[in-house]
Specification:
mainly alpha; Hypothetical Protein Yqey, Chain: A, domain1; Arc Repressor Mutant, subunit A
Amino acid sequence: MSTALKSRLSEEMKTALKGGEKERLSFARNLHAAVRKKEIDDKLELDDAGLQKIVMSSVKQRQESLEQFKTAGRVDLAEKEQAELTFLKSFLPEEMSQEEVKKWVDWAVTESKAASAKDLGAVMKLLMPKVQGKADGKLINQLVKERLG
């Protein structure tokens, strides 16, 4: 483990282990296992961006599970999912506000000279590297479609 996020994950595991925080240790171990699996499967060492993609994927899964547990009335499981979601989000950069995302969308539309919804791909290609991990993909897509109208 060499990147900043990997080092932080390692420290989280050590701290949770020393502090006897079983739930937090479990969350850290699950994330560590997902990272190691990806590295072994792809035969490469992940950088911070790669680790963030894994975290974002895990966040999305936890959000879906949380909704299902709430719908089913399983408060106990929903609370555990919420706690893990909070833990995972601590590894992501702070989310952008909708106004900030709109500014980036305007920039990308202007930069790509997009004129209609047909140019959605070109706009997204410019925009995603700038906002990846800092804003929800559905929100980005919605704002681009509204802008291209």
